[in-house]
Amino acid sequence: MKIGFIGLGVMGRPMANHLIAAGHELFLHRVKDVSQHLVDAGGKALESAKAVAETSEIIILMLPDTPDVEAVLFGEEGVASGLSEKKLVIDMSSISPVATKNFAQRIGKLGASYVDAPVSGGEVGAKAGSLTIMVGASETDFERALPLFQLMGQNITRIGDVGDGQTAKVVNQVIVGLTIEAVAEGLSLAKAAGADPAKVREALMGGFASSRILEVHGERMIKETFDPGFRIRLHRKDIGLAMEAAKALELYLPHSASLQQLMNKALADGLGDKDHSALIKALS
Amino acid sequence: MKIGFIGLGVMGRPMANHLIAAGHELFLHRVKDVSQHLVDAGGKALESAKAVAETSEIIILMLPDTPDVEAVLFGEEGVASGLSEKKLVIDMSSISPVATKNFAQRIGKLGASYVDAPVSGGEVGAKAGSLTIMVGASETDFERALPLFQLMGQNITRIGDVGDGQTAKVVNQVIVGLTIEAVAEGLSLAKAAGADPAKVREALMGGFASSRILEVHGERMIKETFDPGFRIRLHRKDIGLAMEAAKALELYLPHSASLQQLMNKALADGLGDKDHSALIKALS
Predict the structure, then answer these.
(1) Which residues of A touch B216 (CB under 8 A)?
(2) Which CATH number fits domain A167-282: 3.30.1490.480, 3.30.450.20, 1.10.1040.10, 2.60.40.4070?
(3) Stretch A87-100: mean pLDDT, rounded?
(4) Would the pLDDT of A20 be above 90?
(5) Which residue is closest to B204 within chain A, CA to CA?
(6) pTM, two decimal places
(7) Which residues of chain B make contact with A175, given a CB cutoff of 8 A?
(8) What angle separates helix B164-192 from helix A232-249, to the nearest 10 degrees?
(9) Is the predicted pLDDT of residue A206 greater than 90, yes or no?
(10) CA A150 to CA A139: how far, in whole Å?
(11) Mean of the per-residue pLDDT values for chain A?
């Protein structure tokens, strides 16, 4: 199938590679040296997002943030200007659920379809083709996109209609961030009270306090191994999306709001490019 | 062995029962109608905590809060007045780690030993003999108490010296409470944004957001089944212990402090005797 892929970053490169390896014809934009191997493998570099949209049946985006997606879709020589009926845009970036619904409406008016499908699993999951993919789409569009998702991920769920994929991703980031903060406060208390945090973590692993975060990030906190992983700076962006949604929806999320401030403090302390488990250092 | 057991509440009764069933001679105090079956099974009711301490080699306490333990230990006709050398006091209540160290010192001056061994697992775990037991004790005292712990629990860890058991329990309650709050904010956001919280929970269960709380309490939040379980009122007591420790240790625990206020709000909203998963209602 002719597939457009825009956004060849740390995540996008291995994802595009899986599609090429499966025999798809890929049309790329903004190919830099670091993504030249995709062209060597058969991908075709085009001069604009518009050209990618004109040439491809399905156009996949994997971009850093909401304004990047908006610019690639609706900017000059953007995807929208090259779309025609029955084409499908799949945004796999992690961006605003509110903006996503707006983008989908505008794409829909051109006769094309829109799916949001943010992922979790990081660079490791992207390379292994084992990403978790949270999808917002009509049932028809989901079925159409599913064979491509299966080349990139393993745990693929249609949450609901357009926007719901982005909502699920934001919820994931809220729960992950707040659970890290929970473990950080617990282990800080253990240490300050003179108990061995490693022993406490071990004793708690079997009960209701147990979580993937206590297991993985709890160990990072105890050993103080803060190489990313997932950077506090990037996680702060996602909590920002939660705060934006909370404002739009008039929703009370006191701990998410406080978490955003703790992340600001972590950045002020020079921890922005450390793993998010380093949030424990923002408490001390 | 001659064992004293003081505190025959919802937890204490089944715990004492396991000791009698294993053939130990139990000496009880404050036996009410609801604990009469322990006397029928061979337990002996005595008129004071002092008499229990005089008669028993090991004295176990399972009481509601710090002041109760202090009164039973050091009040008139209390345990301390009946202790002699080589006796062992085991406090299985969940109380202040700071006060625990003080109590242990005072008991130690009488030539007796002190172990703190709070539990988690609730009434279900107490009845099944499957409690998690977090122990603060010298190695010698731990070895001496272990056969009794094995009659009441399964996951038994010596965290460290006296007080460390209580610290681990408080840390457990902090992490559990804050993880409940994390899941509550996440699922509230999902619902407000129009995504199906059940679908979101399902999609998140495989990844870093996964926890026992997302699994068990997340489902309670979605189905709005808030029968305890563990009451918000009791959990608030434990977060109060964390706040007391934070004050004594000059420790910054912003989310625990905020959780305490959310629990106050839940009580103001009449939710004090609901399961702690009902904290999600304090957000709306």
Answers:
(1) 208
(2) 1.10.1040.10
(3) 97
(4) yes
(5) A172
(6) 0.94
(7) 182-183, 185-186, 204, 209, 214
(8) 50
(9) no
(10) 16
(11) 97
**Which of chain A's residues have a Cβ under 8 Å away from the Cβ of B170?**
189
**A280 lies within 8 A of chain B by CB:** no
Query: What percent of chain A has pLDDT above 90?
Result: 98
| Dihedral sign (CA A157, A158, A159, A162) | positive
Give the best residue of A149, A208, A251, A261 to mutate against chain B (max B CB count within 10 A). A208
The residue assigned the tokens 């489902």 is: B219
Question: Residue A156 pairs with which residues in a beta bridge?
Answer: A133
Q: Is B260 on the interface with A (CB under 8 A)?
A: no
What are the chain A neighbours of B178 within 8 Å (beta carbons)? 178-179, 181-182, 185-186, 255
For chain B, say whether A83 makes contact (Cβ under 8 Å): no
Which pair of tokens denotes residue A279? Answer: 């949030």
- Banded pLDDT at B229 (limits 50, 70, 90): confident
Q: How large is the average pLDDT for residues A197-224?
A: 96
- Give the C-alpha separation, A229 to A243, whole Å: 23
| Contact by Cβ (8 Å): A84, A113 | no
CB pair distance less than 8 Å for B255 and A255: yes
Residue B60's pLDDT is what? 98
Query: What pLDDT is recorded for position A151?
Result: 98
Bridging pattern class, strands A131-136 and B153-160: unpaired
Which residue from A minimizes the CA distance to B157? A203
Handedness of CA A204, A209, A215, A219 (dihedral sign): negative
* Domain boundaries of chain B, sorted by first residue: 2-161, 167-282
Distance CA B118, CA A200 (A): 13
Pairing of strands B131-136, A2-6: unpaired
Mean residue pLDDT of chain B comes to 97
* A2-161 fold: Rossmann fold (3.40.50)
Burial class for B141, CB neighbours closer than 10 Å (0-12, 13-18, 19+): buried
Residues B131-136, mean pLDDT to the nearest whole number: 96
**Residue A86 — left, alpha, or beta (φ > 0 → left; ψ -120 to 50 → alpha)?**
left
Percent of chain B with pLDDT over 90: 98
CA distance B95 to chain A (A): 14
Residue of B169, B265, B274, B281 with catalytic role: B169
Model confidence band, residue B213 (pLDDT cutoffs 50, 70, 90): very high
Catalytic sites of A, residue numbers? 169
Q: What is the pLDDT of residues B251-280, one digit of tens each?
A: 999 999 999 999 999 999 999 999 999 999
pLDDT digits (tens, 9 = 90+) for B175-192: 999 999 999 999 999 999
Using CB atoms, which residue from B134, B187, B192 is nearest to A203? B134
**B87 a catalytic residue:** no
Compute the count of residue pairs across chains A and B with CB atoms less than 8 Å apart.
251
